[in-house]
Amino acid sequence: STAPGRPFYNPVEAVFVLATVLTFTAVGAIVASRQPRNAIGWIFCGIGLVVGINSLAGGYAEYRLAGGSAAGSLAETAAWFASWSWTLWVYVPTSFLLLLFPDGRLPSSRWRPVAWCAALGVISFVAGNALEPGPLEDFPQITNPYGVESPILGAVAIAGGILASASMVASAVSLIVRMRRAGRVERQQ
């Protein structure tokens, strides 16, 4: 996001976003085309898509706001999406990629609760952030067009953040456990 008086175009950020989108999308497409049942490839493709849409939405909102005119409903929605969608490309890869690496499956059925907790945590955290009333964090001049006044919304976001963070730690542990139990082929992967 940009501060007042700062240009909305940042070349370093643009290169970073482009590299992220291309890397995630290319790796995801390669894995998904060769192993369509491997969730890793589809997660990579999804993350590339979310990062690209996040950048496009944020750039559009900044462009509209820099023009000095009223943002309009499309720009407000773009700013809203750009304000919370970062959570998807932080929590999803760090939880699910670690949990499912390298074959796209859980290490065993005993890890299912970790996957469910990660999904519930990410959904709660995203919903809590996306529906929080008031000014948008990245675009304070815009009031959240989809904000909901609710006394439990903040608690849902906090609980979701804690659950998602705990799931990320458990996912990292699952990778260590998988590595210790792995055979020669799996360790090379």
Give me some keywords for this one.
disordered N terminus, 189 residues, mainly alpha
Provide an overview of this structure.
By secondary structure, the chain is mainly alpha-helical. The protein has seven helices and no strands. The chain has helices at 11-34, 39-66, 72-84, 86-100, 112-130, 153-181, 184-188. Helix 2 (39-66) crosses helix 3 (72-84), helix 2 runs antiparallel to helix 4 and helix 5 (112-130) runs antiparallel to helix 6. The radius of gyration is 19 Å and the shape is flat. Residues 1-7 have low confidence and may be disordered.
How do the SSEs run, as a string of H and E? HHHHHHH
Q: Enumerate the spans where pLDDT stays under 50 for 5 or more consecutive residues.
A: 1-7
Number of beta strands: 0
Bin the strand percentage.
Answer: under 5%
Structural class: mainly alpha
* C-alpha end-to-end distance: 38 Å
Q: Considering DSSP H and I runs of 4 or more, what fraction of the residues is helical?
A: over 70%
Whole-number radius of gyration?
A: 19 Å
Mean pLDDT value: 88
Total helical segments: 7
Instruction: Characterize the largest beta sheet: strand count, sense, and whether it forms a barrel.
Output: none
Bulk shape:
flat
Question: What is the topological layout?
Answer:
Blueprint: H1 11-34, H2 39-66, H3 72-84, H4 86-100, H5 112-130, H6 153-181, H7 184-188
Helix pairs in contact: 1-2, 2-3, 2-4, 4-5, 4-6, 5-6
Briefly summarize what is shown.
With 189 residues, the protein is mostly helical. The chain has seven helices and no strands.
